[in-house]
């Protein structure tokens, strides 16, 4: 019993100590739990604050992302139907440059369309060639400041044509003297064309300018006749009528000069008048000979351009052949005149325009039959007379007006009828 009482006492003491310890530890546990709750709440608040700050930062970043492209100069703003477009200011030089490039490209496209973009290209090329020749006459009348001999003018033009056409062929990759099967045609074109040119210069020196012009405009008729025998081209009645109408138009324009200077020699005329009449007769014969050779030359141009498929070859062959020969004639038959600066520039410009006129003429002969091309060549005479009358240099007369109307009507009919159904 004693031992059990002691043990019970010891157990009660121990339990009492534990109970006392439990009693003493309860406030501490409550205190600790309250601290832990406060710590958890503070942690939650800090987490919420961090989340809110993170969200605010993300929203600010998003706003910055949306604002930066609007303020950036390196990127173009996106434009929709509700936004206003603000074009960047452009300098006047850029606008002028772009406008010039646009106009140049449109001009080049127009030339390319005339060159081969239409079934009327052959007729339009010859019309453009006639217009260029008319421009040459106008420039000569406006800016001629120094009388230059005809052989010297021919030499300058042939030299300019030879140099530029040579560079053209080299840049294009064509053989300069053409394919082997075309060289005889090109040589014939050069020889016949040169003899025709020299004959025309002799004719101009012996006859008046009006008579020389009328004789030169018989060349289209000779070309149509020569094409019938050399190229075996058929000439329709409408084409013969068009050529006749255009030629009579030229006669109406220069009829007063022809009537005045076409009288026969009277009995009482002096020997000087007889000599002058003889020179005129020789001039007329040589002029007709020049027209016949010019018509044959057109046939060789057409054949050479079609065979070589390069109209520039026909121009180069004539220019490279005629240039040295006209130089010899310049020093042999006429006194050389040193041109001034402005006269030389004008001669070079005339040579350049003559090159383009000859190229477009050769292109037209390549694409279209000779009789149709021949009628369009009279357009040059009508345009030159219209310029003379509009510039008040000559009073418009009945003959000039009727002649221009006849030529314009004939050429318009040829253009309206158009080319053949099958363009070669």
TrEMBL record:
Keyword NAD: no
Record region (Disordered): 1-68
EamA domain ranges (all copies): 121-254
Record Pfam families: EamA
Gene Ontology cellular component terms for the protein in this record: membrane
Segments of skewed composition (Low complexity): 1-12, 25-36
Subcellular locations according to the entry: Membrane
Biased composition (Basic and acidic residues): 46-58
InterPro entries in UniProt: EamA_dom, EmrE-like
Superkingdom of origin organism: Eukaryota
Keywords assigned: Membrane, Transmembrane, Transmembrane helix
Membrane-topology descriptor: Multi-pass membrane protein
Keyword Membrane in annotation: yes
Membrane-crossing segments per the record: 120-138, 150-169, 190-207, 213-231, 243-262, 282-301, 313-334, 340-361, 398-418
Alphabetized PANTHER family for the sequence: ACYL-MALONYL CONDENSING ENZYME-RELATED, SOLUTE CARRIER FAMILY 35 MEMBER G1
Family designation: Belongs to the drug/metabolite transporter (DMT) superfamily. Plant drug/metabolite exporter (P-DME) (TC 2.A.7.4) family.
Name the record gives this protein: Transport protein
Organism per entry: Heracleum sosnowskyi
């Amino acid at each position: 019993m004693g031992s059990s009482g002691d043990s019970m006492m010891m157990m009660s003491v121990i339990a009492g100590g534990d109970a006392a310890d439990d009693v003493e530890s309860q406030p501490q546990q409550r205190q600790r739990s309250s601290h832990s709750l406060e710590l958890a709440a503070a942690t939650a608040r800090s987490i919420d604050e961090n989340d809110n700050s993170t969200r605010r930062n993300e929203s600010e970043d998003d706003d910055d992302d949306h604002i930066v492209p609007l303020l950036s100069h390196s990127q173009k703003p996106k434009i929709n139907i509700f936004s206003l477009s603000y074009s960047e200011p452009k300098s006047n030089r850029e606008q002028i440059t772009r406008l010039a490039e646009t106009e140049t490209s449109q001009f080049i496209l127009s030339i390319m369309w005339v060159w081969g973009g239409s079934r009327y290209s052959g007729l339009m090329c010859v019309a453009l060639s006639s217009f260029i020749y008319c421009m040459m006459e106008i420039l000569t009348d406006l800016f001629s400041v120094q009388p230059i001999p005809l052989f010297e003018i021919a030499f300058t033009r042939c030299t300019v044509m030879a140099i530029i056409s040579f560079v053209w062929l080299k840049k294009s990759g064509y053989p300069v003297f053409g394919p082997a099967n075309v060289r005889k045609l090109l040589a014939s074109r050069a020889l016949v064309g040169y003899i025709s040119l020299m004959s025309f210069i002799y004719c101009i020196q012996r006859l008046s300018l009006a008579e020389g012009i009328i004789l030169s405009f018989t060349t289209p008729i000779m070309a149509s006749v020569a094409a019938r025998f050399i190229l075996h081209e058929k000439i329709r009645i409408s084409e013969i009528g068009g050529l006749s109408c255009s030629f009579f138009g030229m006669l109406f324009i220069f009829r007063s000069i022809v009537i005045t200077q076409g009288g026969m020699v009277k009995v009482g005329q002096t020997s000087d008048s007889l000599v002058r009449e003889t020179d005129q007769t020789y001039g007329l014969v040589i002029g007709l000979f020049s027209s016949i050779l010019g018509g044959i030359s057109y046939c060789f141009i057409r054949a050479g351009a079609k065979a070589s498929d390069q109209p520039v070859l026909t121009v180069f062959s004539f220019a490279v052949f005629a240039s040295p020969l006209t130089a010899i004639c310049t020093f042999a038959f006429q006194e050389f005149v040193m041109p001034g600066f402005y006269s030389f520039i004008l001669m070079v410009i005339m040579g350049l325009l003559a090159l383009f006129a000859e190229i477009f003429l050769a292109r037209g002969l390549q694409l279209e039959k000779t009789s149709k091309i021949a009628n369009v060549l009279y357009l040059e005479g009508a345009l030159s007379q219209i310029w003379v009358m509009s510039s008040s240099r000559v009073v418009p007369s009945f003959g000039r007006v009727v002649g221009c109307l006849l030529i314009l009507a004939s050429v318009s009919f040829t253009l309206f009828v158009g080319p053949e159904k099958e363009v070669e």
